[in-house]
Amino acid sequence: MDDIAKTAEKIRGGDRRALSRAITLVESQRSDHRSRALELLEACGTDRQALRIGLSGTPGVGKSTFIESFGLMLTRMGLRVAVLAVDPSSSRSGGSILGDKTRMAYLARDPNAFIRPSPSQAQLGGVARRTRDAVHLCEAAGFDVVLIETVGVGQSETMVAHMSDLFILLLAPAGGDELQGVKRGIMEIADMIVVNKADGDLAPQARRTCADYSGALRLLRKRPQDPDGFPKALTVSAIEEAGLEQVWSEIQSLSEWRKKSGIWDESRQKQSMYWFSEEVRTQLLEKISTDPALSQQLKIEEASVARGDTTPAQAASRIVEQFAGLKNA
């Protein structure tokens, strides 16, 4: 990637290989790679927008099957679909399986689709640290829809709401109990609840589950970003490709309403401000960690906190004060 301008031109021309290499660059944690990644993101521009759909669900609910069936339906309509799938990383080795292309074999071979699995790298929020940058690159490459599949671990999935235009929560029939510990936070941000596996013997149970969640959604406080009838619950069978067209129709209806009401642009502005604040925090912490004097002081303060000699807040204040003193010197 010696020529940033040429790479950006290839990405904007829809070159999938250039897009893959660019995402690898923005995900790199090397400082020299980061500076080049920022240049590339700037060169790609911000004039293109895709429909960003966040999707989460508990393990085994059929997220990959749903995304593949849903994505294939969209590509048959002539739309270009990018899937950014985040796999959990091992807390010991840091490794990830990254098996999404294997689980979505048909979609992976579709010329109008792009699948990119990324490790979470122990990042909280259900998404990888640079997922938002990857979304930006997919938009620059001209994709119409970007599906962001989260790790699927629970309440921390709410982070995906800060980078998507709408959020779908995928559930399995009789899945009420499995969400008892997390559903309050995640249901409050869901624009649509989709009960999967509504086929065969599970079909009646899927309809009952859908009815239960429809009732639960009506009890939640109405949000200003919703038209009448939203959020709502629907049933689908990803394996039989039943109900997918209705899901897409509801997504389009909600998106159009939000665009006409100005909520779409307002939401994107708020998301940009949120990630600006997050980036400032992240970069400040990196500066502290890489400065020799501060890094040494950081180890001293960590040991002091571990011994119980000082509180975490007091130790953090001393680090910040030393950082400010170095910058003012």
Distance between the termini: 37 Å
Mean pLDDT: 85
**Number of beta-strand segments:** 7
The CATH architecture assignment of the largest domain turns out to be 3-Layer(aba) Sandwich
Spatially, the strands of the biggest sheet line up as: 3-2-4-1-5-6-7
Helix-strand string: HHHEHEHHEHEEHEHEHHHH
Which stretches of 5+ consecutive residues score pLDDT under 50? 89-99, 121-127
In CATH, what is the class of the largest domain? Alpha Beta
Number of helices: 13
Approximate strand percentage = 5-15%
Query: What is the CATH topology of the largest domain?
Result: Rossmann fold
Our count of domains comes out at 3
Radius of gyration: 22 Å
Say which CATH homologous superfamily of the largest domain is assigned.
Answer: P-loop containing nucleotide triphosphate hydrolases
Biggest sheet statistics:
7 strands, parallel
Broad shape = globular
- Percent of residues in helices: 40-55%
User: From the helix content, strand content and strand pairing, which structural class follows?
Assistant: alpha/beta
Nutshell version of this structure?
By secondary structure, the protein is an alpha/beta fold. It has helices spanning 4-12, 16-27, 31-44, 63-76, 100-103, 105-108, 131-140, 183-189, 203-219, 244-261, 263-290, 292-307, 312-328, and strands at residues 51-57, 81-87, 113-119, 145-149, 166-171, 192-195, 232-235. Strand 5 (166-171), helix 8 and strand 6 form a beta-alpha-beta unit.
